[in-house]
Amino acid sequence: MTRILQSTNMAKIAVTDGMEGKAILLLEKAGHEVVNESFTQEQLLGGALDGVQAIIVRSATKLTEDVIQACASELKVIARAGVGVDNIDLEAAGTLGIPVVNAPQASTQSVVELTIGHLLASLRFLPRANEGMKLGRWEKNTLKGTELHGKSLGLIGFGRIAQGVSRVARSFGMEVHAFDPYVPERIAKAEHTRLHKSIESLFSSCTHISIHCNLNDETYHLVNLERIRMMPTIGTDGIPCGNHIVNCARGGIVDERETLDALNSGELTSLALDVFEIEPVDANHPLLQHENFHGTPHIGASTLEAQLRVGMSIVDSVLDILDGKSCDFVVNQSYLE
Amino acid sequence: MTRILQSTNMAKIAVTDGMEGKAILLLEKAGHEVVNESFTQEQLLGGALDGVQAIIVRSATKLTEDVIQACASELKVIARAGVGVDNIDLEAAGTLGIPVVNAPQASTQSVVELTIGHLLASLRFLPRANEGMKLGRWEKNTLKGTELHGKSLGLIGFGRIAQGVSRVARSFGMEVHAFDPYVPERIAKAEHTRLHKSIESLFSSCTHISIHCNLNDETYHLVNLERIRMMPTIGTDGIPCGNHIVNCARGGIVDERETLDALNSGELTSLALDVFEIEPVDANHPLLQHENFHGTPHIGASTLEAQLRVGMSIVDSVLDILDGKSCDFVVNQSYLE
Fold first, then answer.
1. Quick check: A304 and B173 CB within 8 A?
2. 3-state secondary structure at position A57
């Protein structure tokens, strides 16, 4: 850290969903008071945080328009210690002149690695094989998987994470495709990835699909039965590998009811989810019992590295804004305009 | 297949552990009689296969000296539809003038992919997280993993599989090391892999170890408590990632009792095994219940691709030898000398 650890004014900073200890220490060393505590929605609406200059959240705290207004009297910055900001009303914050910052690069590598882990776990039945062994089954001859090599991977969204996934997937010998209307052709080309002009074209070209876009009106239930039916089930190498979907982005992009139908009918070979429409997932969720499904509890950024990087990045951004400096990671357009 | 599918003499070929259907068809199209059937050790010792010209096995059939002698009267070739030949007495076959062939390249990519899958499954708790969700647990905050990026991977053995693992591991940003007294420095250098002069030096340098050597007197129980204790637990990036071991090579190279002790004492962070000292594994094996262990039932080559390639390669080799041609994949020195 090259920053001089002294701000001109002492500020009160609320950290409501926890943050890496080293990062909190840096805020305190900079002379600020840190309130590291969770609040109920009622407490927030009652103005429990009114008077703080900064609020740092992860995904649990829901900063709705009402909550932001109830806490806004001295609020100078809202920070999301992570990437997705769907729990923050960006427009309401912007209207009140409050920038919202996130840490978009901190968890990239962790999500890339989890995505590849889920792909391989699906194709080689890792959770299922482990459970079977514990039950005394030796499924060497029945759990016949397929290779990533020689297959086509379709990436929905082609930001930093998808580009990282593309690099590793190519090292396995996959052919990589992507759909992202906001990414220029030259970026895809530099990553040896074929950019499609429509989501239908992507699904029609790929035996394996991985999701790396935000959740919004455009992407809600983007993965549905109709599109799953477009996927080929024979690899570019001629192997009948079936079709496979992984989502380590946001719940709601995959229509869980329709993908379960597709698993049940055999129109989808495997599904792996790190994110769900409703989290935490209920133990009775019918997907959890399907033998061709496996999942993890939203752990894409749950690594020591990601949490450390997130904390450091957020501390930098919050201190910059409290010091009246500019910050590269402001995400609310309504504030920037 | 460019081969002219007609041998001069019709031979009787026994396939005792199954083989890909397309491969069996090729043997039949070449004019041979294929006996696709399993036999007990007693049947084999009783000469059930005496009179066949070729025996094609996987790992289940044990071709001991006695069995080979009992079947040898017209035997011209023994083929292992796979890589490891520890179920075949190579010397006994050689002494009787019988070449043993295998398919060393067919499963390379499948084992590379399973190895990376196991590494990621260990670091991100994939089987454990999936089981937890089914039990209604949402362990987002407790299952904090680590990245492969910025860590050092030590490969025991640096043949084709290890070289493939090295390439993918480097795409994740790992630093790759290897120990293999039979591989020249230039091969490691071409793969940007640091070759160590001793196994102790490798263990002392790597937070992650993956095994890719044969099982023999030299490698039996090569991974033991003493060597595990040499492993660093902090990555080259300074992250306290612990130490992790994966074995997708052969059971017996890892001392299961000592690695369980190391898991219990916390001296080993995670262990993933595809191969075991005794297979099939008993459901009461104490490793299976350890939360930092997960495993698969020897499925390294259990992919459609590997089985197809194995079948094609073995058919080629068997037909070559029956036709009196030379074959690149003869593995018994005693025959070659």
1. no
2. strand
pLDDT band, residue B181 (cuts 50/70/90): very high
| Residues of A noted as catalytic | 250, 279, 298
Please give the structure tokens belonging to residue A130: 């482990």
Reduced to 3 states (helix: H, G, I; strand: E, B; else coil), residue A307 is helix
Tell which residue, B158, B148, B84, B143, has the closest CA to residue B292. Answer: B143
| CB contact A140 to B (< 8 Å) | yes
CB contact under 8 A, B304 and A171: no
Cis, bond preceding A280 (omega within 30 deg of 0): yes
If you average pLDDT over residues B283-289, what whole number do you get? 96
- In angstroms, the CA A243 to CA B87 distance is 36
pLDDT tens track for A285-310: 999 999 999 999 999 999 999 999 99
Q: Do the Cβ atoms of B117 and A117 come within 8 Å?
A: yes
State how far the Cα of B163 lies from the Cα of B155, in Å rounded to an integer: 9
ipTM of predicted assembly, 2 dp: 0.90
Instruction: Write the pLDDT tens digit of every residue in A202-260.
Output: 999 999 999 999 999 999 999 999 999 999 999 999 999 999 999 999 999 999 999 99
Nearest to B116 among A120, A125, A237 (CB): A120
Sheet holding B12-15, edge to edge: B33-36, B12-15, B54-57, B77-80, B100-102
Q: Determine, for residues A302 and B143 on separate chains, whether the beta-carbon distance falls below 8 Å.
A: yes
Per residue in B261-282, pLDDT (tens digit) is 999 999 999 999 999 999 999 9
- The whole-angstrom distance between residue B50's C-alpha and the CA centroid of its chain comes to 30
Domains of chain A: 12-106+303-336 (3.40.50.720), 108-295 (3.40.50.720)
* pLDDT tens profile A45-75: 999 999 999 999 998 999 999 999 999 999 9
Nearest to B198 by CA among B178, B176, B174: B178
Per-residue pLDDT band for B1 (boundaries 50, 70, 90) equals very low
Confidence of residue B7 (pLDDT cuts 50, 70, 90): very low
Half-sphere exposure of B43 (CA within 13 A, CB side): 8
Is residue A281 within 8 A of residue A295, CB to CB? The reply is yes
Instruction: Indicate yes or no: CB of A171 within 8 angstroms of CB of B168.
Output: yes
Q: Is the pLDDT of residue A4 over 50?
A: no
Min Cα–Cα distance to chain A from B316, Å? 20
B192 in A contact zone (CB under 8 Å): no
Q: Is B309 a catalytic residue?
A: no
Instruction: Look at phi and psi of residue B111 and say left if phi exceeds 0, alpha if psi is from -120 to 50, else beta.
Output: alpha
Catalytic one of B250, B256, B258, B294: B250
Confirm whether B294 is a catalytic residue: no
